[in-house]
User: Fold this.
Amino acid sequence: MWFYPKIVAHRGGGTLAPENTLAGMRCGLAHGFRAVEFDVMLSADNIPVLMHDPQFGRTVPGHGQVAMTTAAELAGMDAGSWRGPEFAGEPVPKYEQVVAFCKENGIWMNVEIKPSPGFEAITGAVVAETTRKLFAQELAAGAAPSELPLFSSFSFDALAAAQDTAPDIPRGFLLDILPPDWLDKLRSLDAVALHTNHKKLTPDQARAIKEAGYGLFCYTVNEPERAREILTWGVDAFCTDRLDLIGPDFAA
Ligand code: G3P
Ligand code: MG
Assistant:
């Protein structure tokens, strides 16, 4: 039900490095993490890049929309200075660069498909097609689940498009609060896992999800005591920002 690592670095290096950058990936690796979550969005020229917010202002200075900016322009932008001067000039990476880094270093990926509003289906389709190409050898060889990324998204439409495009790459549905029809949604997406906000999860819900046969992943758990608690509920895995407090072997 959960074939993946239990402790996952959120957005690359959590809060220790600029999120969704190669510097973040290096930070996670330096803390011993071999499992990472990051967010993928499309540029104006439909290139998947790592980005959380659809508009500039927080991690990239200025105004404007990611969906109106080309990947080449994004690569010239500064996604690091907001986190500290030592990260100045850190670019917005392309998804394929990050996959290459993770493959070189044996890092498992939870790829969160994060569409700009209005671009849900195309983002799911392009990210899935890109991933299908990047993992063509693994897919042809019938790779174990842990050798493939796990897609997740808050967007049902993005995941449905990923399912159509690359059905053999597994999916987890991200839900902030569990709706009454969560099980129907998971079945419809042929998902392997449910990803949810630990702050809103109850022990009964955790039990129901596990009894239904799904992996259960929580975001974003930053306190060791809370992490221990939800693990006793049957939560399989979680991502954390606090790589300094919750290490990769925390659940061992
Ligand atoms: O994928 C888990 C978590 O990253 C979802 O929330 O906003 O950090 O992308 P967010
Ligand atoms: Mg995310």
About this structure: The chain is about 30% helix and 15% strand. The radius of gyration is 17 Å. The mean pLDDT is 98. Residues 7-40+105-240 form a domain with the TIM Barrel fold (CATH 3.20.20.190).
